[in-house]
Amino acid sequence: MNVPHTSYTPEQIDRLARRRAGAKMGWFIHAFVYLCVNAGLALLALSHGRDWYAYPLLGWGLGLALHGAAVWLMGPG
Fold it and tell me: Distance (Å, rounded) from C-alpha 60 to C-alpha 39?
């Protein structure tokens, strides 16, 4: 399969690289906040003998997975 070669200027390459790096950093921040908040919710719920923490864990986890798919699996740019 032949992929058309597109010539980018150095400015376009730099802009694209910064955009990709920013998107990846945004996902890492999202994942860190997800872990911290859901660990806190789990500790709070389990300390009272409840298991409701699974609902925000799963719902937010789906959002994090979709965010990750958009950042890591989608094409360039």
Answer: 13
Residues in the chain: 77
In a domain? residue 11: no
State yes or no: pLDDT of 25 exceeds 80: yes
Domain that holds residue 45: 22-72
> Which letter does DSSP use for residue 74 in this model?
S
Could you tell me the two tokens for 63?
């959002």
- The answer to the question of residue 65 being in a domain is yes
| Sign for the pseudo-dihedral over CA of 43, 41, 23, 76 | positive
| Predicted model pTM | 0.81
